[in-house]
């Protein structure tokens, strides 16, 4: 955000010069207004740096190695999160197909056909859970990929607009969206990747897996379901935090005319 700092510093200097000129000309009230604008520009630049430092600290606290000041890195990590979400959705779908394939194989032979119904009953809840999880992660993959493209724009434009009094609300909104959604998606991607690394996938050529399929599928459903729950919770909290952060940006102002 060095460019943003330079632009803001230049704008602050312009306000100071205008205020000084008006003060000399005797227009004290107008001069105070310009001095006020100059102070607020600098105040919001400081607030911007504090906000990004705080966001980086939060990211480190939840186990993310990322600097939200680096929008290119954030965008790349969001693309990785999109791939993680896609892998989770694909695993859920593949597991459902594994169960249905085994049920079809059991139903094809008269001797084992009763076992198809037993397997269906034993895996019914997990197949339903995996169906929901597959849909959730599919759309999260789309969302993360799209946000990876818009994140640099939101961060840069938001940081530029924030110190400008008339455009401050838009700048604060853009920045709040960038910070909250980025943290939410990156943390969700990290939690999902951790869950995927610990999941045991059934093998189509292992007879032991054919016998224990209900247990294996249940474990996968629980692991992905837990990760999906954490994801939804993280994004919900990020949304609330984003709304609050936008309000903070919009609510800070120094008024010299009341001093």
Automatic annotation (TrEMBL):
Highest taxon in the source lineage: Archaea
Ranges annotated as spanning the membrane: 6-25, 37-64, 115-139, 146-164, 170-189, 210-228, 234-256
This protein's record includes keyword Transmembrane: yes
Sorted UniProt keywords: Membrane, Transmembrane, Transmembrane helix
Protein name: Uncharacterized protein
Source organism of the structure: Infirmifilum lucidum
Lineage start: Archaea, Thermoproteota, Thermoprotei, Thermofilales, Thermofilaceae
